[in-house]
Design goal:
mainly alpha; Arc Repressor Mutant, subunit A; Tetracycline Repressor, domain 2; 9 helices; about 75% helix
């Protein structure tokens, strides 16, 4: 049965994602991606005229999947902001326990292409991380956190740091350490709010 253009494209993107995530962008050739999708290079180039074009399409697809998963993660109506953030790090601990876990593909690509600031993949990585930060800020703001944008940025810093250190050390306890640090941020803000509401001694 003839394969549809959409099915072929999805097979190519899946092969590219699997290989680039495992080996890095520079080390993977178009011929490797074609072989991984059980296609000829000619068919591959019919759908994507360059490796950069393929990478852009792959990142676009992964962005949509990752954002959908993140929205599901933080969309917990019965949970307060501290529970939502705790859940982020609990999910990170579970995710990092999966076989062949290699951290955030967007982060790894941005690091790999650090000497190419104008590369489309760097731009897409920035947009992806900014989207996650904005979504978290919106959730925190809906919970009444006054400086939600600042807190969201602090949480994302802890998340990225935990991912990198788990990858370096192979130690998932960095997720729980980051979770504890995040709860400390909320605790400091609660204490500051109490002090601000307390009457000033005369």
């Amino acid at each position: 049965m003839a394969r549809s253009a959409h099915e072929t494209r999805m097979k190519i993107l899946a092969s590219a994602y699997r290989l680039i995530r495992r080996h890095g962008f520079a080390r993977v050739k178009m011929s490797d991606i074609a072989a991984g999708a059980s296609l000829t290079k000619r068919t591959l180039y019919h759908h994507f005229d360059s490796k950069d074009a393929l990478l852009a399409a792959m990142l676009d697809a992964q962005h949509d999947l990752a954002v959908a998963a993140f929205v599901k993660m933080i969309d917990r109506p019965k949970h307060g902001p501290e529970q939502v953030v705790e859940g982020i790090f609990a999910d990170l601990a579970s995710w990092s326990a999966t076989k062949h876990w290699e951290g955030s593909g967007f982060t790894r690509l941005a690091i790999e292409l650090a000497d190419l600031p104008g590369h489309p993949a760097r731009r897409m990585a920035r947009q992806h991380k900014a989207t996650l930060e904005r979504l978290l800020a919106e959730r925190l703001e809906s919970d009444g956190i006054s400086d939600a944008a600042v807190v969201a940025r602090e949480i994302l810093l802890l998340t990225e740091g935990a991912m990198v250190l788990i990858l370096i050390h192979g130690d998932r306890s960095y997720a729980s350490a980051a979770a504890a640090a995040a709860q400390g941020l909320f605790r400091i803000r609660r204490q500051a709010a109490v002090m601000a509401d307390s009457p000033t001694p005369t």
